[in-house]
Structure formats: C-alpha cells, structure tokens
Amino acid sequence: MSRLLRPALLVTAVLALLGFGITPAGAATSITVATAIGRQDGSTASVTGYVVGQPTATSTVVRSNFPNDYALALADSASQTSTSSMLYVQIPTAFRASYGLQSNPSLLGKQITVTGTLAAYFSHPGLKNATAVTGGGGTDPGPDPGDYYAGAEGKTGSALKSALHTIISSQTKLTYDQVWDALKVTDQDPNNSSNVIEIYSGRSISKTLNGGDADDWNREHVWAKSHGDFGTATGPGTDVHHLRPEDVTVNSARGNLDFDNGGTSVAQCSGCTADSDSFAPRAAVRGDVARMIFYMAVRYEGDDGFANLELNDSVSNGTAPYIGKVSVLKAWAAADPPDAFEKNRNEVIYSQFQHNRNPFIDHPEWVASIWP
C-alpha cells in the first residue's frame, strides 16, 4: 500500500488534476525580450526590457506623438530601432495611467518588467493580458548618473533642448594641446592599448604617431571648425565630444564638407564617400558622427562668446554656423545606434576629462523630440 501524500503534495496533486499549473519557485525570474519573442506559446512570463516606443501596426513603432495609452514596445536595448527585435505589449486599463506612453512619454528609454501572456499582438510577437507592471526608473545605456538629466525630465522639443544645453554646459574645458592626451584615452583601441582608432577610416594606429605628416593621425573636428569660425579656441574648438583621431590625408579630404549620402570613394578610408559639397563616413560610425553633431548644436547656443551652432538640411553652408543635412544625420543615428565603444567614450569624457556627457548617446530617443 502506498504511503499517504503529505498535505502540500496533496494540494499540488488536486490542483494539477483540476488543470491549474503550479508555479515553481524560480518562475518569478524575468526573461529577456529576445527570449519572449521566441516563446510565443501562450504561457505566462515576466519580461524585462526597455520601452522603445508604441506599436501602431505590425511593423510600425512610433517614438513620439503617441496616439493613446493602449500599447508599448519593449526591447533589450533602449537604442533598438528594428521592430523584429521588439516585443509588443498590450496595456490593460488598470495600468494605462502609469504606463501608457501618451500619459507618460518620459517612460521612453526606461526599463520595466511586465507579467502577462506571451501571445501575438498586432500580428507581431507580443505580451497580452498583463497582470503586473513594475519599474520605470532604470535607463540604458550603461553609466548615466541618476540625477544628471533631472533638469530635462518630462520635457520635449525646444524646452528639452534648452534644459540639456544648461546641463551639458557645465564642463571642464581643455586646451588644444590637452586634446592630444585626451584622445589617446577616449579613443584607445580596446584590442591594443598602444593604439587609437581613427574615426572615419577605422584604422588602428599607434598613439605616438600623432602629428601633421602623411599617415600620421591628427585632431579631426567633426563639426568643422570653419562652420562657426571657432578655430581651435578653448571651447567648441577643443571639445573632445566632437574631436576624434583621424588620418591626416582623410582629414584633409573631409575638409569642412557637410554630411550627406553619395559621392565617390575616399582614398585610405574604406566605406567613405565624398563629392564637391558633402562627405559620408563608413557605415559603422555614421550614427556616432550624427550624435556628435547633435551634441554640438545643443551645447553651443551663442551664449558664451561663440556662434550659435545649428543644424539645417543644406550641404552649402560654407563658413556659416550650420551643418547639414539634418534629415540624413537623423537617419544615420537611427540606423547606427550607440555601441560599446561610443558609450565607453562618453563615460571616459565625463569621468576623466570634461565632466559633461553627450545626451544623445545616453538617450537616443531625444533626437526625434528636438528635431522631429
């Protein structure tokens, strides 16, 4: 005769017979968005991810002008732009006031955990019938001091730009000679500590080969210094958020050209193109270039003795304090989100040199808010 079941086991057996699943102790552990996308089996799960927008169709996620509070999209990175890497989350009535994006646009880029049913939504991998939503305080990517952007919280458009200008204008300024030493740290090759990586060419070159001779590397002003006539003056001329190592010849080929697609190949710069009025770097750093330009347009507003730097959609800016094309730069930023090298560079500048940050690396979603 079999041994009598202990009370706990008896309850388990009865619930199982009645069709109720028993949640094991480890089931409370959340899963990633990627795991949730691959597990569309109607099971219940807690999914942790970053809010990247609101789905409005199978392959459409908006990042501003949210139509309602009914849904949001999660991803494993706040900078994710591919809808194939997003989980569409249905927001029940009980959670809309706190987690709907129309009511809470500042959730964009924040990390949350949602518990619900893994089932298609908008004919796309999704999570429905949420029973719990938590979080909203964490941001991606990486080191972003919790109160650094406090003054920008809840702001959009011109108000956001003004708040960010105030925040990032508090910085330690370097001399042009100090830039040499800074770049040897900020742009160090992660695979060879004796080298730096050239921004446009991608070449790894010895830190000691800085200078003005052919095949040396020098200090490239990504926002061309003639666009605003600030030269190498302490301030915009020495701001390492837009100063990068580059081959002397390639630096000369770029000159003071605006940024745009098209043109012919540039010598010693695989993947770069240029024509009479524009330049395009290799695809892997086009987003980096765009975010440096966005930083400069917010940091320098004409209130510190230098020109008010602004973006436009032209490639004929000459020596005016403008750079374009803004439409192309926005597309580059979306196609090439911040990577580990760019995030680390931002942190090194903040912690070791200028003590200010590029907000568009920390919060890529702010690009569309300021330049819709």
Topology:
Layout: H1 7-17, H2 33-38, E1 44-57, E2 60-62, E3 71-75, E4 87-90, H3 93-99, E5 110-118, E6 126-139, H4 157-168, H5 176-186, E7 188-189, E8 192-197, E9 204-206, E10 217-221, E11 243-247, H6 248-254, E12 258-259, E13 264-266, E14 269-274, E15 278-280, H7 286-299, E16 310-311, E17 322-323, H8 326-335, H9 340-353, H10 359-362, H11 366-370
Parallel strand pairs: 4-6, 12-15, 16-17
Antiparallel strand pairs: 1-2, 1-3, 1-5, 3-4, 5-6, 7-8, 8-9, 10-11, 13-14, 14-15
Summary?
With 372 residues, the chain is of the alpha+beta class.
Main sheet characteristics = 5 strands, mixed, barrel
Q: What is the rounded distance between the termini? A: 76 Å
Strand order of the largest sheet: 1-3-4-6-5
The secondary structure category is alpha+beta
Radius of gyration: 25 Å
How many individual β-strands?
Answer: 17
Beta strand %: 15-25%
Number of helices: 11
Q: Would you list the SSEs in sequence order as H and E?
A: HHEEEEHEEHHEEEEEHEEEEHEEHHHH
Low-pLDDT windows of residues: 1-28, 138-144
Q: Percentage of helical residues?
A: 25-40%
Mean pLDDT: 89
User: How does the overall form come out from the CA principal axes?
Assistant: elongated
List keywords for this structure.
alpha+beta
Account of the protein in words:
This protein is an alpha+beta fold and 372 residues long. The chain has helices at 7-17, 33-38, 93-99, 157-168, 176-186, 248-254, 286-299, 326-335, 340-353, 359-362, 366-370, and strands at residues 44-57, 60-62, 71-75, 87-90, 110-118, 126-139, 188-189, 192-197, 204-206, 217-221, 243-247, 258-259, 264-266, 269-274, 278-280, 310-311, 322-323. The protein has a five-stranded mixed beta barrel. A four-stranded mixed β-sheet has the order 12-15-14-13, with helices on one face. α7 crosses α8.
